[in-house]
Amino acid sequence: MPESHEQPRPRLSRRWLIRGVGVAAAGAAVLGSAGGTAAAAALPGGREDGGRQDKGKNPGKGKKVKITTLATGLKFPEGPVALPNGDVLVVEIHRKTLTRITPDGTTSVVAELGGGPNGAALGPDGRVYVANNGGMYAFDVGGFVFAGGIPADYTSGSIQAVDLKTGAVETLYTAADGHDLRGPNDLVFDSAGGFYFTDHGKSDGATGDKGRLFYATPDGKSIKQIAGGMEGPNGIGLSPDGKRLYVSETYTARVWWWDVTGPGRITGGKSLGGSGGGNFLYTAADYTNFDSLGVEAGGNVCVASMIHAGISVVSPKGDLVDFVEIDTDGDPGITNICWGGPGMRTAYITASSTGKLLKVEWPRPGLALNFAGGKK
């Protein structure tokens, strides 16, 4: 599909969007309704553990990149996975599918997943593993689509595995330690073949879950909680050497990290009261919701940033080294990034609120993920 030259729709003010994404749809709590004000709370600047708050010195402020619209008409796409043959997979929360997109923009459904597929990753057996939040309402704010709340048919969240050749779906996990998975969001495989995933939790507008982190094996036989008490954990990723685990929180717009001491074993404790026991890395200065994240080959953490739409690029020391604005028809819902193509220099980014998959030539190479087919 050629580069989009469509005129952007009338732009809504950020203040209007902040109010809008905190409303309720169909009587249910929606994105931004639980803990949203925490994202605007200022934190002290430099931390002994290396964490930082951006105080407005933004080396990428105003930077524009060439954006190619690869596919449109998607139903809240997330979790892009770049395949070695040039295709890209996404999950569609509101269509409840795993969807394939070819380089010419053609889309096809790989599998019907039900619930609310939220994140995806290639596993060691060649199957695609999906973090399924169990379902969300779709609602409109100023012509933009969002996702949230607890639909009437919700039962639990789950981890699923999809055979790309046959479309067969296997549900591996719906609970851990006797407690249901509430809203699995994103996942990443380590070199040992297991995977870490976030459980964002659910909110009904009156009460809300605390978020959790888990480690599981792809055979469906082992799952354990490794952290809890978090505020909307969303994106998750590993450093290039696999020795750090990064997690972004949506409503606080913070990034946390842990040392990885072995498969499924993490340690934090360097920040007093750190979310999930993690170490503080970075928080946004203005009102922003963080969604998923990816890691560059050089170690920078790239966090998809909503409302203030773009990609926040944060160093392992907690410095904002770049902010790449993603302006596509005014979409405030920039949710995910992954890399593929020659040299891992093509970024695939989901603009969820307008239903697009975007392609951007990235200034630095992305990290070749474990089992994703890229050369490590």
From TrEMBL:
Q: Determine the domain of life of the protein's source.
A: Bacteria
* Region Disordered, residue ranges: 39-63
Q: Which SUPFAM superfamilies does this entry report, sorted A to Z?
A: Calcium-dependent phosphotriesterase (SSF63829)
Q: Name the PROSITE patterns on file.
A: TAT (PS51318)
What are the Basic and acidic residues biased-composition ranges?
46-57
Domain SMP-30/Gluconolactonase/LRE-like region per the UniProt entry, residue ranges: 76-352
Q: Which InterPro entries match?
A: 6-blade_b-propeller_TolB-like (IPR011042), SGL (IPR013658), SMP-30/CGR1_Lactonase (IPR051262), TAT_signal (IPR006311)
**Protein name per UniProt:** SMP-30/gluconolactonase/LRE family protein
Task: State the organism named in the record.
Answer: Microtetraspora glauca
